[in-house]
Design brief:
455 residues, 11-stranded parallel beta sheet, 35 strands, mainly beta, 19-stranded mixed beta sheet
């Protein structure tokens, strides 16, 4: 179960390797509209929400087991922040069957709140729950979709508490949750932002998480992408801006005979300003633990609080110890500007600058990882030279994402050289992962650091 601390497009090269294949229109019958059954607290839906529809959701949404809901491009799902019933239980979308969100870049599917509530003041307000895929959910496609203003607290009566997925009083909703170790999940080309808790929290399934933007994930803990035992995933091409703790938390927590070792390839991601809003020394960009098997390669870490951490690395290959020592955590680039954090914890690390955190004597910095990585020894020694993002002007604790930013690399960027080659490992889903009649193939390891190359 998820515990929350209550203190507080890819480049042409990558896109060419990232493909959708589906049936032609001639092969598909005309899709019917949705079938809806409502009660005082629940809306049960299957079928299709048609292109451009607006759905006003004032109660919990359930997609029943054995059935599916397809959401076409341009659909807006406006979730009431008033919640359900006299306890104002945060509204949850429970996927017992299958969910297919098929937005486009020009017309994304949107899960949000009333436009009047889409303010910076509400970024961490947790105005509704999230999307929770139960153990009967066989597959889910989230493509060109915006999910925002989630993170409501799980309380008595919350569907996820009743299902014993989360604990009332202890947990808050991530934007997306999965639990089926045999499920298939694709999250691509989407924006997951402005949530109290994690962006993605997977407790099982085969997954591709690619070419997304994560921003402002976690108020007093939590990560952009948080993966547990039972997951096999390729995570690449993502921008992760200002996660509270880590961009990537990779753990085989919960591993058992039935819930197998977590295996993750996390490569060519760009993580910016991670960890500064979190007290303690737990994270600051990437965290690998508890026997997770990972390949963490060619990532670009910019102005993050710490380097990749592998706690208990002296006790590898144990579910209560460090990461699987057959893993590769290497060939990453840690860039630092001259920014000083306006939040510093003198009683802890006292780290105030990214370069200082990269070179801090942290107990969770294994000497066996990042041996070929580029680590900035001081401010501005490594500047990735983004097309439009000021590494010395955007505050380390800033969490409001500016759509004008452009994280492509300018010509001459140091992040264009020194990356590992694609021969280092093969993505788990290089030959494709099939969901909802579409086959998505994972891109190969690209020969540069970060999510994007030059334009």
């Amino acid at each position: 179960m998820k515990k929350i601390n209550h203190f507080i497009y890819a480049t042409a090269l990558m896109l060419s390797a990232f493909s959708f294949a589906s049936c032609s229109d001639d092969d598909e019958p005309e899709t019917p509209s949705s079938t809806t059954v409502t009660t005082e607290t629940t809306m049960t839906v299957s079928g299709v929400w048609k292109k451009g529809e607006t759905i006003n959701l004032d109660r919990h949404l359930v997609i029943p087991e054995g059935e599916s809901l397809t959401i076409e491009e341009g659909v807006n799902v406006i979730v009431s922040s008033a919640g359900v019933g006299i306890n104002h239980t945060p509204i949850e979308i429970t996927v017992k069957g299958n969910l297919y969100c098929r937005g486009t870049k020009a017309n994304p599917v949107v899960f949000s709140v009333d436009p009047s509530k889409r303010t910076n003041a509400n970024i961490f307000a947790g105005l509704w729950g999230g999307i929770v895929a139960t153990e009967s959910c066989e597959e889910m496609l989230i493509d060109n979709t915006i999910i925002e203003y989630t993170g409501g607290q799980v309380i008595e009566g919350s569907p996820a508490a009743v299902a014993e997925i989360y604990t009332a009083g202890d947990d808050a909703y991530p934007q997306i949750t999965t639990t089926n170790i045999n499920g298939r999940y694709i999250i691509t080309n989407s924006i997951l932002r402005n949530g109290w808790s994690d962006g993605v929290y997977l407790m099982g399934g085969q997954a591709i998480i690619a070419n997304n933007v994560f921003a402002a994930n976690g108020f007093s803990g939590a990560e952009a992408v948080n993966l547990k035992a039972g997951v096999v995933a390729d995570v690449f091409g993502n921008i992760m801006f200002s996660p509270n703790t880590n961009g990537l938390k990779l753990s085989s927590s919960g591993q058992s005979e039935t819930r197998t070792q977590a295996k993750v390839n996390a490569y060519n991601n760009t993580i910016i300003n991670a960890g500064w809003r979190r007290d303690g020394e737990k994270g600051g960009c990437i965290y690998a633990e508890k026997n997770v098997k990972v390949n963490v390669v060619n990532n670009l870490l910019v102005n993050c609080k710490f380097r990749a951490m592998t706690p208990n690395y002296k006790n590898p290959n144990m579910t209560d110890g460090g990461y699987d020592d057959s893993s590769i955590i290497d060939y990453n680039m840690y860039a630092s500007g001259s920014q000083k954090s306006d939040i510093v914890f003198p009683e802890e690390s006292n780290v105030a600058y990214a370069w200082e955190g990269y070179n801090y004597s942290h107990k969770s910095y294994s000497p066996d990882i990042d041996t070929h990585s580029f680590i900035s020894p001081e401010a501005n020694k490594i500047d990735p030279r983004f097309v439009n993002f000021g590494i010395n002007s955007v505050k380390l604790t800033e969490y409001v994402y500016d759509n004008a930013w452009d994280f492509h690399l300018a010509a001459g960027s140091p992040a264009l050289n020194g990356a590992a080659s694609s021969s280092l490992f093969t993505p788990y889903f290089a030959n494709g992962l099939s969901v909802g009649g579409s086959v998505v193939s994972s891109a190969s390891l690209a020969p540069y650091f970060g999510a994007y190359s030059t334009k």
